[in-house]
Please model this.
Amino acid sequence: MVMAATKEFGQPIMNPTHAEALTWLIHKCATAAATKTNSGTFKPTGLGQIMNMRNNFIEPLPETSIGNIYQIMEFPTSNKSEVTPNAVIGELRKRKTEVRRIRNIESMMEMIAEMYSETGMVERLKKLDVYYLYTLLNIFPAYGIDFGWGTPVKVTIAGTQKNMAFFIASPNGEGIEALVSLERQDMEIFQNDPYLLAFAS
Model:
């Protein structure tokens, strides 16, 4: 279905993952909703996807290590033409390859320090009006966790920031559920987007 849908934008994406296709679809519909609430003017937006770095390093992490170790793949979408599947998924794949080249914690920390320095943040805010963040939890075995009361019937995430989407596995493990948080006026349009509803089951 995704392959067929991408044909209308030109060359179809070959073998897109579920997460890649879902990131593009939600970003497309979210930016379209924001454009409508902004009197039809597209806002330059940043797209970021959180990437797990735990298994990326040459030296394995200590068995006693705790906490999250991640990097954010991010890039701007400055106009509507940059929200096509080829542009979004192609850029995601390019950034993922770049991030995978980080092979030690020191290099990763240097990149994070530069990205979130005061200078880096100011420059980013000058170029972008809105920022959307996507995080993939669909491979996390949430439905296999048992704290003594049996495995969960439903897993969700309580509370989140605006313009963020969490991808989690569906209860039967055969699909992905997206938990999306947007500005109220954008969400009303987003939820009724016929393009989005065509993919909803």
About this structure: The chain is about 35% helix and 15% strand.
